């Protein structure tokens, strides 16, 4: 019966490790929710426009046209022109964020060797910019300054 003495703590350890792994997988799943492609057959639950201006050392940087638009997929978050208008045209009521947009764009929000100051509707936003939830007519300014 001596063998049982070490089996129990080992089993406990296994259960704890498994639990940890599952929690990690769950966190990953909830943290990164893919932005869906639009289905032309389905009506929109939300259609909002926000503007994003990126200023680097005082110089306005162009926002590319057709971010989130490919032949195969029109993402719920996209641009049509270089004006900085971000279109949120979604078939669900999910609260899309600026972090979602940058993920569609494939760019990081932070730039190395730059500080970033963010303004939302002319008020400085002091939390993580990725968490800004899009609202209609929202004006977002990113000001990067070289360190
Ligand atoms: Zn639109």
Give keywords.
2 domains; 24% helix; alpha+beta; seven-stranded mixed sheet; Ferric Hydroxamate Uptake Protein, Chain A, domain 1; 147 residues; 7 strands; binds zinc ion
Structure description:
This protein has 147 residues and is α+β, with helices and mostly antiparallel strands. The protein has two domains: 1-31; 46-146, Ferric Hydroxamate Uptake Protein, Chain A, domain 1 (Beta Complex), CATH 2.170.130. 24% of the residues lie in helices and 27% in strands. The protein has helices at residues 4-31, 98-105, and strands at residues 46-56, 59-61, 77-78, 85-90, 114-120, 123-125, 139-146. Strands 1, 2, 3, 4, 5, 6 and 7 form a seven-stranded mixed sheet that branches. The longest helix has 28 residues, at 4-31. Bound molecules: zinc ion (ZN).
Secondary-structure blueprint:
Blueprint: H1 4-31, E1 46-56, E2 59-61, E3 77-78, E4 85-90, H2 98-105, E5 114-120, E6 123-125, E7 139-146
Parallel strand pairs: 1-7
Antiparallel strand pairs: 1-2, 1-4, 3-4, 5-6, 5-7
The chain binds zinc ion.
- The CATH topology of the largest domain: Ferric Hydroxamate Uptake Protein, Chain A, domain 1
Ligands and ions found: zinc ion
CATH class label of the largest domain: Mainly Beta
How far apart the termini lie comes to: 66 Å
CATH architecture of the largest domain: Beta Complex
Shape, per Cα inertia axes? extended
Number of spatially distinct domains: 2
- The percentage helix is 10-25%
β-sheet strand percentage: 25-35%
Give the structural class: alpha+beta
Query: Number of DSSP helices?
Result: 2
Q: Averaged pLDDT, please?
A: 90
Series of H and E elements: HEEEEHEEE
